[in-house]
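Practice problem 4.
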């Protein structure tokens, strides 16, 4: 899940976005940071930092609340991800599987 923070810390943003976008309720103590990706989508774009959190538990069933931004909520096997996954997210998932905390994508060599 990704989103813009609205004058709030990253975990508060995660909790709010999960509620707004998927109808899930997450508690702060159930969240841990698992990866940071520093990325540029394409040349000339502003760099971004993506924070990836793992949630140990939550309540609620995922609901599709923003169909213009998301086509479905589904759990995927990390080795069989969909083809249309955002590229930096694919990189981050691979790094998380390897226990790596940081990656960079889109930067010139």
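Answer key:
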């Amino acid at each position: 899940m990704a989103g813009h923070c609205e004058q709030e810390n990253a975990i508060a943003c995660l909790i709010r976005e999960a509620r707004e976008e998927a109808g899930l309720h997450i508690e702060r103590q159930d969240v841990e940071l698992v990866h940071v990706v520093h990325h540029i989508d394409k040349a000339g774009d502003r760099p971004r930092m993506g924070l990836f959190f793992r949630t140990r538990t939550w309540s609620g069933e995922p609901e599709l609340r923003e169909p213009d931004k998301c086509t479905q909520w589904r759990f995927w096997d990390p080795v069989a991800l969909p083809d249309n996954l955002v590229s930096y997210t694919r990189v981050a998932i691979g790094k998380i599987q390897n226990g790596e905390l940081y990656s960079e994508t889109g930067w010139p060599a």
